[in-house]
Write a structure and sequence with these properties.
Elements: H1 2-19, E1 27-32, H2 51-55, E2 58-66, E3 70-71, E4 75-77, E5 81-84, E6 90-93, E7 100-103, E8 109-113, E9 115-118, E10 125-131, E11 134-138, E12 141-143, E13 151-155, E14 163-167, E15 170-172, E16 181-185
Length: 194
């Protein structure tokens, strides 16, 4: 009887470790490629195909790099991250939708560098900033967001001290005759009594 109890105890302690799967940590640097696949780990030798696939495998504060010129799809950014596509054309097509949505924590910093963000004439917003500590847009082309109130860059952060920096970028052919435009920023009003 004691032997059975001992084996049961031993099996109860060892079995959970024997059948458990190893945890997959997020990488601080991931890669995308036009010939990649989002089931890949987004490593340099096995890249992802889209920014959306890579962002889920990239740690907060990490970066996504483009290996070659391709269309990488629209993306929603919910954490501190940098997307670098300099030297190649990292394209985002936001036809009928937003190209990049930034809805990160109020302490997160986001960098977009070397992107070609196109609305194909029907896009809504090229870069739509809802919340982040800072968003830096460098060496980007943001164009053809002509949908309803189409705007190249729209910044309406919910946090009070958000910063937007645009450097060496071309923001053109956005908006319609009635509304929209290159960029729009709606600063948050100060709290009453402050």
């Amino acid at each position: 009887m004691r032997r059975i109890a001992l084996w049961a105890l031993l099996a109860g302690l060892v079995l959970p470790f024997a059948v458990s799967q190893p945890a997959h940590a997020q990488a601080t640097r991931t890669w995308v490629s036009g010939v990649g696949d989002d089931v890949n780990p987004c490593s340099r030798t096995a890249p992802c195909k889209t920014f959306a696939g890579a962002i889920s495998k990239t740690a907060a504060g990490g970066e996504i790099n483009c290996l070659d010129s391709a269309g990488y799809g629209a993306v929603t950014i919910t954490k501190a991250i940098s997307i670098y596509c300099e030297g190649v054309v990292g394209s985002i097509l936001g036809s009928g939708t937003n190209g990049v949505n930034v809805n990160a924590a109020a302490t997160d910093h986001v960098v977009l560098r070397g992107l070609d963000i196109s609305g194909a004439g029907t896009g809504l917003k090229g870069v739509n900033i809802l919340q982040a500590a800072s968003v830096v847009i460098e060496h980007c082309f943001i164009r053809d967001f002509n949908g309803a109130s189409g705007t190249g860059i729209f910044s309406n952060p919910s946090n009070f001290n958000s910063m937007l920096m645009i450097r060496d970028s071309v923001i053109s052919h956005n908006g319609a005759a009635a509304a929209g435009g290159g960029s729009a920023s709606t600063p948050m009003a100060a709290a009453p009594g402050s």
